[in-house]
Write a structure and sequence with these properties.
By secondary structure, the protein is mainly α. The protein has helices at about 15-25, 50-135, 140-175. α2 runs antiparallel to α3 (about 140-175). The protein starts with 13 loop residues before the first helix and ends with a helix.
Length: about 180
């Protein structure tokens, strides 16, 4: 009997090829009415062992489960990293805003302090002029003592007014 094996793919063993050929010619009959399968010698055919297929299937299923677990862990880690990144961004924005607010406050305090110091210099210059005018007009001890007392009081007032600003400035420079 001649079986046409040209359309059978030769990827398996002889027994697999023979099975494919048998399936292909199963219902066909010879012109004499006999079956093609009667002439085949099936004595050397091995029973196919598909245990390796089940082992491969189990191994592939295990591999797929491991890959799913790994992808799940990776997804969770990526989600956590995204949340951490958002928290860091929010913290950075808050810190930047606080720093800018403190910087604006410090500049206002410096401007106020500069204004106070400028007024103090003006007052001291005016007092100095008055002292020189008084010295020229009178050489009395009491007027000089009064001027010294006024100048001392003005210095004390200036120190009391500028002390809170200086403390804030010193605190800011320490930080």
């Amino acid at each position: 009997m001649a079986i046409d094996l040209r359309s059978v793919e030769p990827l398996g063993s002889k027994s697999v090829l023979l099975e494919q050929a048998i399936r292909k010619h199963k219902g066909r009959r010879k012109p004499s009415g006999e079956s093609y399968l009667q002439d085949l010698d099936l004595s050397d055919m091995l029973n196919p062992d598909y245990e390796w297929l089940n082992e491969d299937k189990t191994a592939i299923q295990n591999l797929v489960q491991q890959m799913d677990a790994s992808i799940g862990q990776l997804s969770e880690q990526m989600r956590e990293m995204g949340q951490q990144t958002r928290h860091i961004d929010q913290f950075t924005r808050r810190t930047k805003t606080q720093f800018e607010d403190e910087q604006k406050l410090l500049f206002k305090q410096i401007q106020t302090l500069n204004g106070l110091l400028k007024r103090q210099v003006e007052v001291l210059t005016h007092v100095e002029r008055q002292i020189s005018d008084i010295e020229i007009k009178q050489n009395n001890f009491i007027p000089q003592m009064g001027i010294g007392l006024i100048a001392g009081l003005m210095s004390a007032v200036t120190i009391l007014v500028s002390a809170p600003w200086l403390m804030v400035l010193i605190e800011y420079l320490r930080a």
